[in-house]
């Protein structure tokens, strides 16, 4: 096999996509309610994004960051505006790299001896070594021990545990508004506000990983906007390029001033092809009120799911939902096994825990596509109830 053994063997090979639809190499049609893990939020092969990439490919594909380009600064200015009008942006190629930038900002801000970063158990911040160490899933650390030191993990929504861990050796707290890979677990509003207050009182940076929750996915531009909080650092990626690899780390205040030339960099970060895709994505999202669509369609999907007898509960916000399945519906099956059966029936979701499915369809998903996806679920999931 020419590919490294990092993923299970592919039983389905996709050839093309359009909007919410995918087709495999055998011509079978699927509804994509996973979006490449919350990436293709405008749907597959969005014409404005495709056109922007094609035009940029015939104009300027790459120069190093030793020189300026016209596109990247435009995207950075838009992102700063969407975060309230201040701050600055570093461009990377992925969410893990955007998170690495945030971690390095924290360490530069705190200095040696005050370099610790607190994250939560169940969190997921990426596969690079520092992002993996930040991830609050010890089982993922084991194959790569010793992982970088300087990370502490506390329970999600436990303010007392956070207060106890946040001593004068801590540079930053780094949390997800909603744990994505950890099971679609939202932070409680009171806890989020409490964590921010602790950071302000103790001089630590308040950093929010919006790689999955950002870019309108939850029904606001940024997941933190549901909580009335103001972070110092926000890494983002996934939907920013709608499939073109690009990540970004926004910071304000002292955090934005932490780096000096030579502290950090990326050969491909913010290069013209990726930045052109991001510029088009941002323009389309603002034009169609993508956050409003996520709220509207997310509520429609949530209400329809809660009316099903095979659904125990639904958690999440907007169009990032975790569906807890009833024991009767699961039977002897796990949620990953059920997701494989749904794939065979033409619906792409994933089993995010042994008992829950994740749905993250395009923000442009139609009423008819929601109804079709639910009909498939009724047959495959509800059929065992």
Explained architecture:
This protein is of the alpha/beta class and 385 residues long. It is built from 14 helices and 17 strands. The protein has helices at residues 35-38, 47-57, 71-82, 95-110, 129-134, 138-141, 159-165, 189-202, 253-256, 272-288, 290-306, 327-330, 335-344, 367-380; strands at residues 14-18, 21-24, 29-32, 88-92, 116-120, 151-154, 170-175, 178-179, 185-186, 205-208, 233-236, 247-251, 311-317, 320-325, 347-348, 350-353, 356-359. A 4-stranded mixed beta sheet has the order 1-2-3-15. The chain has a 4-stranded parallel beta sheet with strand order 6-5-7-10, with helices on both faces. A 4-stranded antiparallel beta sheet has the order 13-14-17-16. Strand 13 (311-317) and strand 14 (320-325) form a beta hairpin. Helix 2 (47-57) runs antiparallel to helix 10 (272-288) and helix 10 crosses helix 11 (290-306). The protein is globular and about 55 Å long. The mean pLDDT is 97.
User: Residue share in helices?
Assistant: 25-40%
Decide which structural class fits the backbone. alpha/beta
Distance between the termini: 40 Å
Mean pLDDT level:
97
Strand content: 15-25%
Number of distinct helices: 14
How would the global form be characterised?
globular
Tally of DSSP β-strands: 17
Indicate the low-confidence ranges by residue numbers.
Answer: none
Order of adjacent strands in the largest pleated sheet:
1-2-3-15
Radius of gyration: 21 Å
Please summarize the sheet with the most strands. 4 strands, mixed
């Amino acid at each position: 096999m020419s590919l490294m053994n990092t993923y299970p063997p592919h039983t389905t090979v996709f050839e093309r996509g359009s909007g919410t639809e995918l087709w495999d190499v055998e011509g079978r049609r699927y509804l994509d309610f996973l979006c490449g893990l919350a990436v293709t939020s405008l749907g597959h092969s969005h014409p404005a994004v495709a056109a922007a990439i094609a035009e940029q490919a015939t104009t300027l594909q790459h120069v190093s960051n030793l020189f300026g380009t016209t596109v990247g600064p435009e995207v950075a200015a838009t992102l700063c505006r969407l975060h309230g009008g201040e701050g600055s942006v570093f461009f990377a190629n992925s969410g893990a790299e955007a998170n690495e930038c945030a971690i390095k900002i924290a360490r530069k801000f705190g200095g040696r001896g005050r370099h610790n970063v607190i994250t939560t158990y169940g969190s997921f911040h990426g596969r690079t070594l520092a992002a993996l160490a930040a991830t609050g899933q010890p089982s993922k650390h084991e194959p790569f021990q010793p992982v970088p030191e300087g990370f502490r993990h506390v329970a999600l929504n436990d303010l007392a545990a956070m207060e106890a861990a946040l001593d004068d050796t801590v540079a930053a707290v780094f949390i997800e508004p909603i744990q994505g890979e950890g099971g679609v677990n939202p932070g409680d509003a009171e806890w989020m506000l409490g964590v921010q207050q602790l950071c302000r009182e103790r001089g630590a940076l308040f950093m929010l990983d919006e790689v999955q929750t950002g870019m309108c996915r939850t029904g606001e531009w940024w997941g933190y906007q549901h909580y009335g909080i103001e972070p110092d650092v926000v890494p983002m990626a996934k939907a920013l390029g709608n499939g073109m690899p690009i990540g970004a780390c926004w910071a304000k205040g002292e955090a934005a001033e932490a780096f000096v030339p030579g502290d950090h960099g990326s050969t491909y970060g913010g290069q013209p092809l990726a930045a052109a895709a991001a510029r088009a994505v941002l323009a389309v999202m603002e034009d169609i009120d993508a956050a409003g669509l996520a709220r509207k369609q997310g509520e429609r999907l949530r209400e329809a799911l809660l009316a099903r007898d095979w659904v125990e509960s639904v958690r999440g916000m907007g169009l990032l939902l975790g569906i807890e399945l009833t024991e009767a519906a699961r039977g002897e099956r796990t949620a990953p096994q059920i997701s494989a059966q749904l794939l065979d029936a033409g619906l792409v979701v994933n089993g995010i825990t042994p008992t829950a499915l994740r749905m993250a369809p395009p923000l442009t998903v139609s009423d008819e596509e929601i109804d079709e996806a639910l009909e498939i679920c009724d047959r495959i999931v509800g059929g065992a109830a």
